[in-house]
Design a protein that fits this description.
The structure is a single chain. β1, α2 and β2 form a beta-alpha-beta unit. This protein has 342 residues and is α/β, with parallel strands linked by helices. 50% of the residues lie in helices and 15% in strands. The N terminus is likely disordered.
Length: 342
């Protein structure tokens, strides 16, 4: 479709788009870049802005065809034509195999990033750029708030995230979607519209309906974005404190492949730090592939059972996050949970 103007929002000018993209496309960049472009207004603006900035590294436009809608193949072809018009190479990658009946959007998102990382590794790219906006950030924070997430979850979408040595970058994360729509209008870049964005089966679509009501009460996307930024900043400080505390409290374990912590020292920490130390110890003991521990279970186990048992000198054993945790003689000892017997 041919985009219309976005009222009240200014289009990105060449200088601003260059400032946002230059660290990944300019002379200081050290490796190629994959642009994740679905054909919607956000990613169409990303592709056009990247093409307007003469790149110093190879740029590849990639479209993941999830195969969930009959028109998805045609939309990928439309992105290929637009990329060609911009002078950029394009690759269509398909999500093959059976699709889950529940959790479809989460599964599609995981598949998309897996396919993009594989493609980036294949072509030697050092970064994947996506066009997530402030609107996406606000929706993510609200979704996680509804799900009862702790501070780590309320940090929302990371502006830059490492995916096995490849940077996942969101250069537009702090600007409203309307500015990217306005940019498409100003430059004459056509884009597609995904009907799934309005499908009430999906939580994001339902939240989009109430966002104007929340904004009228003062809970605007900008304020949700600032909440996420502040939460990530605080989380980084707590993570650094937890790393230091884990080093200080680690003791030689009595069993191989186990992790032992000084229980009185753990109890003396601020609870927010103690919880993060325990998460790190569980991950080290349980190993790769262990299930993530929900905050509610972690709080109940550590604050409600483990630390009180240690303070009272009681022995206690429980399993959490794939780890068997034992309280005995002033130590919390964690090791991988043994295989369950039928």
């Amino acid at each position: 479709m041919r985009p219309g103007p976005a009222a009240g929002e200014a289009a990105l000018d060449p200088a601003e788009s260059a400032q946002r993209l230059a660290p990944w496309l300019g002379r200081e960049a050290r490796a190629g870049v994959v642009l994740a472009v679905s054909g919607g207004p956000d990613s169409t603006a990303l592709m056009g802005c990247a093409a307007s900035l003469p790149p110093a590294v190879p740029v590849l436009v990639a479209t993941v065809d999830h195969g969930l809608r009959p028109e998805s193949a045609a939309e990928a072809d439309g992105v290929a034509r637009a990329a060609q018009a911009h002078g950029l190479p394009h690759r269509r990658i398909a999500w093959l195999g059976d699709k889950p009946r529940t959790g479809l959007q989460a599964a599609a998102r995981a598949a998309r990033y897996r396919l993009l990382v594989d493609l980036a590794g294949e072509v030697g790219a050092g970064a994947i750029l996506t066009a997530h906006t402030l609107d996406d950030q606000a929706e993510t924070v609200l979704m996680r708030l509804c799900a009862g997430s702790g501070p780590a979850g309320l940090g929302g979408i990371d502006p830059v995230r490492d995916l096995g040595g490849i940077a996942l970058v969101r250069p537009f994360l702090d600007i409203p979607k309307a500015r990217l729509v306005a940019t498409c209008a100003a430059r004459g870049w056509a884009f597609a519209t995904d009907p799934g964005n309005r499908d009430p089966r999906f939580a994001r679509a339902r939240l989009r309906r109430v966002m104007p009501l929340l904004a009228a009460e003062g809970l605007t996307p900008a304020r949700l974005g600032r909440l996420a930024e502040r939460t990530r900043r605080n989380e980084a400080a707590l993570a650094a404190a937890a790393d230091a505390a884990l080093r200080d409290l680690t003791r030689p374990p009595a069993l191989p492949s186990a992790v032992a912590l000084d229980a009185p020292g753990l109890a003396a920490l601020p609870q927010a730090v103690a919880l993060r130390v325990t998460v790190r110890a569980i991950a080290a003991a349980a190993g790769a592939g262990a299930p993530a521990v929900r905050l509610e279970r972690l709080e109940a186990a550590l604050l409600g059972r483990l630390l009180p048992a240690a303070a009272e000198g009681r022995a206690l054993r429980l399993t959490l996050g794939g780890a068997l945790i034992t309280v005995s003689q002033g130590l919390l000892t964690l090791r991988a949970e043994p295989p369950r017997r039928r």
